[in-house]
Design a protein that fits this description.
- This protein is of the alpha/beta class.
- It is built from eight helices and eleven strands.
- Helix 3 runs antiparallel to helix 4 and helix 6 runs parallel beside helix 7.
- About 3% of the residues have low confidence.
């Protein structure tokens, strides 16, 4: 790929009402899609890949069925509940991007990802489809989903892990995670401007207050620290700034 490559995640808590099952936060999603469309139209981002979280769609069903990133299910009904909810949310995201002239195309992780060595094993996730779509002028839109997992049937793959896989394989110049908070917060509720090692903030990071089977803020920071490119965690109001090259919120790495 050439030019500026950006991988950006829209947190599930940003675009849904996370404590109300399968409830979209339409104004928030509209605002996010406005920012994305504007940055692309202005030529501020050359190549863009979008990932979105599950929010009240996928997380609700995963929690109800006891499915997490390590505990899986062999119940096809449970798998379809989680995956079906995520494809429904994905369709909402795609439709709003299409309304704004963004050539967005879905890529569903359940169809291609696997953990062949069990839940603690490495993820196999081919990113060739996303890379080729970008090269052909499209904007791939991926999402948290189920993933085939040896000994567990199907477990959860988080959007945060997908961001790391995509950013590494695509050689992303910048990575952004749009969350409901303005960055990673310290004990006084202030944004930590930069994190270079997990030990610096381990005591400050707890689990998500809403239903989240993928680890909350601690998992986000740990996974982003594995990247070789700068990553930023920021709030919805800073999405446009991030896409325009600013460095909002907390820089990771």
């Amino acid at each position: 790929m050439t030019g500026s490559t950006v991988v950006c995640k829209l947190g599930g808590s940003v675009i849904t009402e996370k404590d109300r099952p399968e409830t979209l936060d339409a104004p928030a999603l509209d605002a996010a899609c406005d920012a994305i469309a504007g940055a692309l139209a202005d030529g501020l981002v050359d190549d863009l890949v979008i990932v979105h979280g599950g929010g009240s769609f996928g997380h609700h069903h995963a929690s109800a069925h006891g499915v997490t990133t390590t505990a899986g299910t062999h119940d096809v009904g449970a798998v379809m509940d989680v995956h079906g909810a995520m494809t429904t949310l994905n369709r909402f995201v795609l439709d709003r991007l299409h309304e704004r002239g963004v050539d967005a195309i879905p890529v569903h992780p359940l169809s291609v990802g696997a953990r062949a060595d069990g839940p603690e094993g490495d993820l196999t996730f081919p990113t060739d489809a996303a890379a080729t779509l970008v090269e052909e002028g499209f904007v791939p839109v991926l999402h948290g989903d189920g993933v085939a997992t040896a000994t567990e049937g199907v477990t959860v793959i988080s959007g945060d892990e997908l961001v790391v896989e995509l950013a590494g394989d695509l050689g992303a110049d910048r990575v952004g995670l749009c969350s409901t908070v303005p960055g990673v917060l310290d004990g006084a509720g202030d944004v930590i401007p930069r994190i270079d090692a997990f030990a610096e903030v381990a005591d400050l990071l707890g689990a998500s207050e809403s239903t989240d089977v993928s680890g909350g803020m601690a998992a986000k920071v740990e996974e982003l620290l594995a990247l070789g490119s700068p990553a930023f965690i920021f709030g919805p109001d800073d999405l446009e700034g991030f896409l325009r090259g600013e460095s909002p919120g907390t820089r990771i790495g």
